[in-house]
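seq as requested:
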Amino acid sequence: MDDAKLDAMRRSFNIIETRKKKLLKDENERISKLQERVKKIREYSIGNLEELIETAKNRFLENGMEVIFAENSQVALDEIYKLIKDEPIIAKSKSNNVNEIGLSAFLGSKGIEIVETDLGDRIVQMDPESYGPSHPIGPAAHLDMEKIAQIASKKFGVEVQPEPKSILDIFKADIIERLTNCNVGITGANSVAAEDGALVMVHNEGNISLVSMKDTHIVVVGIDKLVRTVEDAVSVVKLETIFATGKKIPAYMNVITSPSKTADIEQVLLKDMYGAKRVIVILLDNGRSDALKQSKECLLCIGCGSCIVSCPVYNVTGSDFGYRGYLGGRGIVLSNFITDNKICFDSGLFKCTLCGLCTLECPVNIKTNEMIEKLREMSVQSGVCPDEHHGTSEKIKKQGSPF
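struct tokens:
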């Protein structure tokens, strides 16, 4: 990531951090209690994940949704393609799980157009050279207003002023027009209530509401997002919002438990009212079962991105430190299980300073630096480490010092 993008990213981070610190100071007691509650919720969920998976499958089916369990990303891609292969265009909302499986590139290779409905994602989509998501809630946080206006001007063939409302209006009009041609919407979910068979999604733009109303709504969600109840799920997303944006609650919180239906005619249940005719949930494993056995703490993450805002390495290197949409040290840890040790190394395993700031800033106190240390040990044992590492280790052995 070049200097201009890093400067824009840091400015965005400073705004988020200022808002968050003020909120944490003003409502310290309430938020501290919420943190304690969510940590217990997540610890229970990860500790009972296999049971929650089976419960969720059964509840989804009872609620009239379809369920697919995807052991890995290729299974998820193949299943999605079976569902949408006859569609020329589909709508998508922001989702790390969808990005994780490489859906955009896969469908692009099949000639299917994807309309990114999140403004940040759409901006980056229109200029592949700008790719490099910089924050879970701000995919275009590394682009300043001048650059975004240039991207819009080039794409739409008109001069777009570097002014927020002008940029918003032209992107919004384009997205709304393209949405009319979409029969399928693909989203992720922020949290999943197993016992209720409910998907909880938060957003500020309203785009998930639009995408989920298409005839077919496909939800790709990692099994690590499972919790017991809707009440637990709402607690998780409230804490995520506080640490991600510095705001108390998002503009929208969608809870989806079934396809569209009504019982307003003599209580006769009829499907297919205004929303989706089909809701298909793809529960994505993709290495999470392995992480559960070896490093389950990395699955506690609620996806707020607070860790990367404070990370000294990420603030210098940007999205080069992380794996796809999973940014920073925690993303590197997860990449080891999603892919392999080599990808984990390439994602920045040995860039981490092990300072522990990520843990201090994490709302559930994930000890990412300790997980990084363990993975480094495994990496060295398997022969995947920086060339300089061997020389340094030899100096320590012979001289008692790396210098």
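DSSP finds 19 helices and 14 strands in the chain.
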